[in-house]
Structure formats: structure tokens, C-alpha cells
Amino acid sequence: xxxxxxxxxxxxxxxxxxxxxxxxxxxxxxxxxxxxxxxxxxxxxxxxxxxxxxxxxxxxxxxxxxxxxxxxxxxxxxxxxxxxxxxxxxxxxxxxxxxxxxxxxxxxxxxxxxxxxxxxxxxxxxxxxxxxxxxxxxxxxxxxxxxxxxxxxxxxxxxxxxxxxxxxxxxxxxxxxxxxxxxxxxxxxxxxxxxxxxxxxxxxxxxxxxxxxxxxxxxxxxxxxxxxxxxxxxxxxxxxxxxxxxxxxxxxxxxxxxxxxxxxxxxxxxxxxxxxxxxxxxxxxxxxxxxxxxxx
Amino acid sequence: xxxxxxxxxxxxxxxxxxxxxxxxxxxxxxxxxxxxxxxxxxxxxxxxxxxxxxxxxxxxxxxxxxxxxxxxxxxxxxxxxxxxxxxxxxxxxxxxxxxxxxxxxxxxxxxxxxxxxxxxxxxxxxxxxxxxxxxxxxxxxxxxxxxxxxxxxxxxxxxxxxxxxxxxxxxxxxxxxxxxxxxxxxxxxxxxxxxxxxxxxxxxxxxxxxxxxxxxxxxxxxxxxxxxxxxxxxxxxxxxxxxxxxxxxxxxxxxxxxxxxxxxxxxxxxxxxxxxxxxxxxxxxxxxxxxxxxxxxxxxxxxxxxxxxxxxxxxxxxxxxxxxxxxxxxxxxxxxxxxxxxxxxxxxxxxxxxxxxxxxxxxxxxxxx
Amino acid sequence: xxxxxxxxxxxxxxxxxxxxxxxxxxxxxxxxxxxxxxxxxxxxxxxxxxxxxxxxxxxxxxxxxxxxxxxxxxxxxxxxxxxxxxxxxxxxxxxxxxxxxxxxxxxxxxxxxxxxxxxxxxxxxxxxxxxxxxxxxxxxxxxxxxxxxxxxxxxxxxxxxxxxxxxxxxxxxxxxxxxxxxxxxxxxxxxxxxxxxxxxxxxxxxxxxxxxxxxxxxxxxxxxxxxxxxxxxxxxxxxxxxxxxxxxxxxxxxxxxxxxxxx
Lengths: 296, 369, 263
What we know:
The complex is a heterotrimer.
Chain A: H1 2-7, H2 9-39, H3 50-57, E1 59-63, E2 69-73, H4 74-106, H5 109-120, H6 127-138, H7 143-150, H8 162-185, H9 190-198, H10 203-232, H11 235-240, H12 248-257, H13 261-290
Antiparallel strand pairs in A: 1-2
Helix pairs in contact in A: 2-13, 3-13, 4-8, 4-10, 8-10, 9-10, 10-13, 12-13
Chain B: H1 2-22, E1 28-35, H2 49-61, E2 65-72, H3 75-83, E3 91-92, H4 96-104, E4 138-151, E5 175-178, H5 181-192, H6 201-214, E6 218-222, H7 225-231, E7 237-241, H8 242-251, E8 258-261, E9 268-274, H9 282-293, H10 295-305, H11 312-315, H12 318-324, H13 326-332, H14 339-346, H15 353-368
Parallel strand pairs in B: 1-2, 1-3, 5-6, 5-7
Antiparallel strand pairs in B: 4-7, 4-8, 4-9
Helix pairs in contact in B: 5-6, 6-15, 7-8
Chain C: H1 3-26, H2 43-50, H3 52-85, H4 89-104, H5 107-124, H6 133-158, H7 162-169, H8 174-203, H9 206-211, H10 219-224, H11 233-262
């Protein structure tokens, strides 16, 4: 037995992989098939493409600022708005998170550990509660405005604006941006940076030519982990957007609550396809241009 | 070292919780599904309905019963779960129009009133309401009327009194509107004097235009957020359920003076206890409903929710009347010549799927504007 | 650390913890309000300790997170080891894609897709309840798994491949070689993965919302259900307690580390 195993340790590794393969097939792949199945059927489970066409063709009238109304494609508009907010949030997360990750990676080892934990601690309080606390802060009569007016700076109106929704998203998903970038930067060999400096690179060009390219995998997974949940959120937009922002996640949840499971599945299906294509494209592009075609 | 500590911690946590989790789950189980914060739960020294029921049951029948109590956020939320056939609850407390819908779809079981003798305490005017004309499926738990709450420090009293206050441009940016389709459209339709249960699309369109016109004035579309926003003076006008006004007054900030009135036409609602067809233990469910109607729990729940009770033991109880105070009694139990008549005229009824679909589309349009 | 770095990270942490400070302050509020502070009181802490349903929800949340963490860590470690040893490019690509799916899928889609499947299968077998603790557990394991695997894979790649071979040459079975040589090497990755899984499970609401069922109410679902009446400072008190427990654990583990280093 022992010799047999030694000759084919590969079997052991296959065995190790088996539970995960079965699990993924059952609970990742099959459920996606169910989304597709529901998206293409009606309430009686007869085949229909109506749900999909509805997503692309449903229209509604939007009143513009000057009072005139204009016809728009409802769900395409909702989708574009969600993408816009999500992209802005992701960019802000990246701009704020990258320096943070860099600072963390250069700190003493003990400080690093503490900082990682500190970044994660807020997530242990559920995000529903944290979002509620943000409402208290951002309200017109809230803590931030109380603070500003105490300093004689007047007040700002944030709650219910795009800014409030973006603040909520950036806050909630910030750790998802910092941690992946940090974990790559922390592994960077300090000698590499020294070598670059010895070869005459200034700080900025070390950053541009060495650090940033090497940290791209972390950046990519950070972007993914922030962009995806912020496109599909429905709680943050309801609470911090004063219920005035209707995003694609709200649309899906609304249809689920209205018991239109099939249309909810259709929206989810389309969203999923778009995201999968985008992510595949990002991977392809980075694999090609950042690593010069080498995939690992 | 740190690693091993964290591993040990996780292992200990798991072991500890399995022990507490697996013990004590013998005997009968009753699954109750209710709105959040909608039952007296022992907070602030109140009566702990669930625990008292378990105790009472053990004492009376000598058998251990465990109540699994879960909450839902809206009627529709509850309906989605129940109608999918994915869950089984023994007692649910939906609102009227949802009861009508569920009864029609065969999702409710007829009650055996022999097991619910306390039903006699329910006042006659709450029997045979439109959603359950033959008194088969439901026993009312609370009822109420939607009214308008405003901050007298901001709003001129002369402007108050009707639904128009929610559309008054003087108070742009201070108005709150419901964040659910039925109630939001309701306010517009009561204002316009349109039947809230109409199937006429043109009527719905009119209400839609009204809501669109209101949108620039609306500070926020809210559900529970209304509490904080009214208490802190963040907003000054909003429509909500009568009893909640008193909860807000209790917590209002110093520079806020909340007042309340009923507009002429407004929503009457009843939330009632039912047994869904997925129930596993109907008799136990009926025993629980009967317990809810008995004196102590009924009064405790009425005091906790701050909603009016259809139970005659409650609203004739001196302790209860004193606890609520004169103003609350007046607001919660307005003198009506005939509750049933007013109710049947103004309550939300179950819309057919076409009207519901249309309502949802219109609501989405209000939201994306 | 440079001063500018110190300032920057202090600002970031200040913002990160600002809402938690708000929670902390309002958990001591005398009235029920979450926006008007009327006086100091400990009553919400007393209320919390008396509220059996909320405590049960906390317990349920922890049971769920702990079970999901243990199972996904064990299964994920095995999977990472297996994936690392895959030879054919094709099967590697398949496994990577499958691992990526739960991460590139919004949680709302993961939640809905699992719910549709559970309900459908439940109906097929005529089960009275298809959504329960078990469906939530399955859902949580499913979305935690990729994070665990992606924490471990890099450690496996960094490892000297000749180590386990050397162990086997010295008479270890492949299993023995794994436990004696490979496991200690990748342990930091496993631990980070486990902590991540635990954190994600605690933080999740959306997936739980769709897959929750009978009699197993977790904290986020309970909070979300409070939309007819208001969220009480009790929940803030709870969050404050969670915060201090976490902080305490952090301090203890840091102290232990310090002692280790001092030796």
C-alpha cells in the first residue's frame, strides 16, 4: 500500500481535491444553472424570453430639471447608475487604500499585524449596524454637521446625495481593497527596491517602475472585491441615499419581494453575465500587458 | 503561539456553542413568524411573552415547548418565504390585505375556535371584516389608522389637517414619504380621493403623477428611519402608524415638538394572527394564539407595540388606560360610529396580479426619477 | 514610520472607527433614540442581557460563522493542496474559474441562485421546509471557500517543493509528509484564511437574507426585520460589546506574542 501510494502520490492529491470539486459543482455551478432556468421561464415554468426582453425594453419617463420629461430604458438606466456609483467608489477606495496598504507593508512586523486586525475589526460588527451609524453621522442634524457648525464652518448637506451612498460604499468595502494589496506588498523583497535605487531610480520612479507593477495582482483582486459588491448593494443605497437611489440591487430585491422570482432571476442573470465578461476581460488584459503574457 | 491560541479559541467557541445549541431542544417546537419588534419581549421590565408562554405551557400541560421566534420586514417578504414552500411556520401575523391574498391562494388553515375560547374577547366590530368575511382564518392582533406627524416648531398649524401638508411646497426637503409602494401610493390616493383598491390604470397613473410632483419635496423615503428623522428634527412632516407617534414623542429632541392628526381619508389596517398551511403543529399554534388573547400577554403586547388592541380585556383595563394616558387613548381609539364600515371602505385590499405588477412598475419609476 | 505615514494612517483609522464611536456613545443613551442623546444610562446593556431572542440570534450568528469557518478551512486547505498539484493546464483552468465564480458574483446573485435551487429541490422531495440552518451553512461555506483557498495557494507555491519529497525519502507516508512538513509551512495562510472566512460570515447579510429559513434567525436578519418599529440602542450595545471583546482578544494575542519574543 505504502509503495503504491509513493508511486502515485497524485491519487492522494486528487482525493484531497474531490470534496471541493463536488461541492463547487453542487453549490456553485448548479445554482447558476437555476438562475438561467428561472430567467428563461415564466410562472408556469414554460420557456419564455420575456423576462430578458423586459430588462432591455422596459421604459419610463424621467422628469428633468427643467420640468420636461424624457423617455428612458428603465433597467438600463438603473444599471448605468449602479455602475457609475460603483466605479467612483472603487476608484476612491483604490486611491485611499493603496497608500494605506503601502504604509502597512513598510511598518514593523508587529505593527503590521495590529494594523491588519484594526482594519478588519469594524467588519465584525455587521454592516447593517455600521450603515445605521453612518446615518447618524451624516444627517443634516447629525454629528458631522454639529461638529462643523461648532467650529463655525456652517453645515453640509450630504445624506440622500450620491456622496452619502459613495461614502457608505467606500467605508464598507475599504478593507476589501487594502488587504489584498497589502498582502502582495508585504511580500515584496526590500532588496529589490534597494537595487532599483542603487541603479539610479528616484522614489517616484521606484514606485512607478517597480512597486506598482509588482502589486498589480493585489490591485486587481482589490478592485474586483470592491466593485462587485458595490454594484449590487441594496441596503446602503436605501439607508444613506434616503431611499432616493434605486440601484440594480434594489431592483433585484424589489422584484424578489414582489414575488416576481423569474424577473428577479433575469436581472441577476444579465448582471452576472456582464460582470463575468468584464472580469474575464480584465484578467486577460492584465495577464497580457502587465505580465507580458505569462499567466502565473 | 498566536496561531495556536486563535485555533484553540475557534475550537472552544464551536464546542461551547454546540453544547448550548444541542441541549434543550427536546419536546414540542412552535415556529412563530412576526414583524420585528412586534411582541412584548421582556425589555424595560415588560412581560416576556415567548418565555411566559413556554413556562405556562409546561405548567399547564406538563410538556416542554420551545418557541422559535423569527421576524420579517414586510408582508411581501413574509409572503415570498411562505409561498415558496421553503419554510414552515405555525403562527404568522400578516396584515389584512395579505391575509386575503393568502386565504385566496389556500395558504392559510381554517382555525378551530374550540381551541381558542378567548376569541370571545374580540369585539364584534372586528369580526367578519372584508379579508376574512366568515371568520375562518384570522384573529386580529392590533389595528390602527395611518396619521400625519409633524413638528409644530417648523410647521404652521394652519397648514395641518389634511394630506396636503405632505405636498406643501413651503416645507420642501422636510417631508418624509413611505418607502413601500402600497403605503406611498395610498397617501396620494387618499389625498386625491381615489379608491386605493381600484383596478383602473388611469387612477393609478394619477396617483403616480402626484407622487412624482411630491418627489422634489421629499427628504427621504423611509420606513423605520422615520423615528430618528422625526425625533432629531431632521424632517418635519411624515405619515406613519398612529401608535408610533407616541414612541417618537418619548424620544424627541428638545427643539422638536411633534404633533399628530388624522387626515380625512386615511388607511385603516388590521394585523391578525393566522396559521399558514405549512404549519406542523396546528393545535399548539391555536393554544399559542389563545394565550396571546389572554389578559396579561394581550395587555403587555398592546403596551409594547403602542398600537390599538381589538381585545376588550385590553382597552377596558384600568391599568392599561392609565399606562397609555389620555392623549394616547384618544388617538389610538378614536370614536367611530362603525369601525367595520369605515374599515371596509378605506383599508387596502388584495390587488390582482396585473394591478400589483402595474403598481410595482410605477413605484420603480417614482424611485428612479 | 515616517510622520506623513503616521498622519495618514491615523486619519484612515479615525474614519474607520468613527461609526463605532457613534455606536459606543449611543449605546449609553437614556432614550430610545439613535440620533438624540438625552443622558447617560446603562439600561440598554441590561435590556440586551435580558433579551433572549437577540442573544439567541447572536448565538446563531456565531454558530453559523464558526461552523462555516471550520468546514470551509478544512475543505479549502485540502482543495488548495490538490489544486497546487494539478498538472494539466486544462483542469487547472477549470478549478481556477470555479474558485473565481463566487468571488466575481455579487452576493445577491449567490444568495438568489442558492435559494432557487434549495426551494426547487425541496419541492421536488416534498420537504415541508427546505430553508433552514443547513441551507445557510451551505451558502456560507460556499462563499467562504474561495477566500480560504486563495490565502493558501500562494503559500504552497512559495514552499520548497523538495521538502515533502525529502520527508518521503526519509520514510514518511505522503499523508505523514503533509502533516509534518507541508502543513506547518502553510499554516499562516490557513489561519489568515480561517479568520477571513469568519469575518466574512459575520459581516454577511445579503446571502443570509435569501437562504434563511425556519427558526434559525441570525443577527443581521433580526436587525433587518426591525423596519416597522425602530432599531433600538440595544443593538448598539451589542455592537459595542462585540467591539471590546474583539479588541480584548487582539490585546491578549499581542501580549502573548511579546512574551514569545522576549524569550
